Amino acid sequence: MSTETVLKRTPLFDVYKKYGAKVIDFGGWELPVQFSSILEEHEAVRTEAGLFDVSHMGEVLVEGKDAESYINYLVTNDVTKIGINQAQYTAMCNPDGGTIDDLLVYKLGNEKYLLVINAANIEKDVEWMKQHAQGDVKIENLSSDIALLAIQGPKAEGILQKLTEVNLSEISVFHFAQHVNVDGITDVLVSRTGYTGEDGFELYLAADKAEALWEKLLEAGKADGLKPCGLGARDTLRFEARLVLYGQELTSEISPLEAGIGFAVKTNKESKFIGKTALIVQKTEGLKRKLVGIEVTGRGIPRHGYKVFSGEEEIGLITSGTRSPSLQKNLGLALVSAEHTEVGTPLQVEIRNKKIDAVVVKAPFYKKGS
Amino acid sequence: MTKATASLLYSEDHEWVLQLGGNRVRIGISDYAQDQLGDIVFVENAEMDDKVTANETMGTIESVKTASELYSPVSGTVVGVNDSLGDAPETINEQPYEAGWLIEVEMSNPEELEALLSEDEYKEFVSEGDV
């Protein structure tokens, strides 16, 4: 390695090798890109189940009398709408409406919330949160203390149910149970959430218990085809389900409205929040650019950063793209000027200095059960 | 996994060269390269009669995750193309030294072969992790 940077590792790093992981540098983290093959792992999650270590994600605990109003000032969604044991997807914006991060807010108690943020943004986010702290709140970065495993796929519930007495069918989407005992491992937060477009659970627990849970889950899921999965498959799975990725679909220059996650932006909520004015302007004036799905119909695979054209006019960029394992098509998400976003609109993607034909298609490309 | 045969030469860009007699060679990517790339889903190969130049781009190979350039190990004219890769690029993962070959070239400067690595040298090169 040419750089002096020491790569960060999750508590499961030593377990990866045992399962044949190929480990690479993901934005400063040494993480498994795949265990067997991205295509096999992708398929396992769509048809059976996959297990991911996503302990690199950040967790920030916000506690105090003013926790709710403070979080509501930080984020675009309306945190007053969720109850205890409920989670909400949201974004944190700068005053211009650009995105600082997208995150999940878990309401642990009336004055206690867990914010789950992207690994690459942990330092930036925590600094931002502390800078904008108001009222009686305590902000604690627990990222290194908490591990996160995700079990995803149609068989995820059945596998996890073998290991716990909590009735998982009673946990609905974007809800969770706290202090769950999973086969002797105590104090696990079991959340019906994920980043794959399939049903499944995310399991938050103390970092030193992560290895034991990983092994127990793989053992319990053996007969059901549960496979350890890397971040390569996580990326293709989330891409097909049109779940945005910070750094690609969302950046400090791209608003959540432009990225198509307007459902997480409540400009009509009563409280002020950072970015509110800019986002209201975007809404009232109409968006100048939007995220769309595209299919390359010529020969080539769209990739992050490729330019998108309409004839001679450059109209935007590909934010993510790959050959879709489930659809067997060369698909991309593209941020393009609003007049070129209707399904069926012909476009071109510049691939290695050649303009290759593409067309706007519906996204998500994949929906559960399709 | 298929094994390299001793008669192959290798470039530091992980292409192999098989001498077919005369100035004709067959080119593919090494087992190490296909393993590093992961599932290969697309190949943009050189076309018949294209001129290729040693150490310059001769095409692109894409895995699920990323696109990588292919560099020609020799200079010359393309006289054969493995068209079956269009529909079955995964053949490169499955048989990198046999059915997964890329192109055949009529070399214009066979002396370029001397710059390539033997199998033992290539193995050492790869194990140094200098890639």
Automatic annotation (TrEMBL), chain A:
Q: Would you tell me the protein name for this molecule?
A: Aminomethyltransferase
Xref: PANTHER family: AMINOMETHYLTRANSFERASE (PTHR43757), AMINOMETHYLTRANSFERASE, MITOCHONDRIAL (PTHR43757:SF2)
Q: What binding partners and quaternary form does the record give?
A: The glycine cleavage system is composed of four proteins: P, T, L and H.
The Aminomethyltransferase C-terminal domain extends over 289-367
Q: Which residues form a coiled coil?
A: none
UniProt-listed SUPFAM superfamilies: Aminomethyltransferase beta-barrel domain, Folate-binding domain
Q: Where would I find the GCVT N-terminal domain in this sequence?
A: 12-269
Function, as annotated: The glycine cleavage system catalyzes the degradation of glycine.
Query: Which species is this UniProt entry from?
Result: Bacillus aerolatus
What's its top-level EC category? transferase
One GO term (biological process): methylation
Catalytic reactions on record: N(6)-[(R)-S(8)-aminomethyldihydrolipoyl]-L-lysyl-[protein] + (6S)-5,6,7,8-tetrahydrofolate = N(6)-[(R)-dihydrolipoyl]-L-lysyl-[protein] + (6R)-5,10-methylene-5,6,7,8-tetrahydrofolate + NH4(+)
Q: Which UniProt keywords apply?
A: Aminotransferase, Methyltransferase, Transferase
According to its UniProt record, the EC number is 2.1.2.10
Q: A Pfam family this protein belongs to?
A: GCV_T
Residues that bind substrate = E202
User: What GO cellular component is one of the record's annotations?
Assistant: cytosol
**Which NCBIfam families does the protein's record reference?**
gcvT, PRK00389.1
Q: Which GO terms describe its molecular function?
A: aminomethyltransferase activity; methyltransferase activity; transaminase activity
UniProtKB/TrEMBL annotation, chain B:
The N6-lipoyllysine modification is found at K65
- List the InterPro entries hit by this protein, alphabetically: 2-oxoA_DH_lipoyl-BS, Biotin_lipoyl, GCV_H, GCV_H/Fam206, GCV_H_sub, Single_hybrid_motif
Q: Which superkingdom?
A: Bacteria
The gene behind this protein is: gcvH
Q: How does it assemble?
A: The glycine cleavage system is composed of four proteins: P, T, L and H.
The residue ranges of the Lipoyl-binding domain are 24-106
Which intervals of the chain form a coiled coil?
none
GO CC, alphabetical: cytosol; glycine cleavage complex
Q: Which organism is it from?
A: Bacillus aerolatus
Q: Which cofactor is recorded for it?
A: (R)-lipoate
Name of the protein described by the UniProt record = Glycine cleavage system H protein
Q: What is the lineage of its organism?
A: Bacteria, Bacillati, Bacillota, Bacilli, Bacillales
Which BP terms from GO are recorded? glycine decarboxylation via glycine cleavage system; protein lipoylation
Cofactor notes:
Binds 1 lipoyl cofactor covalently.
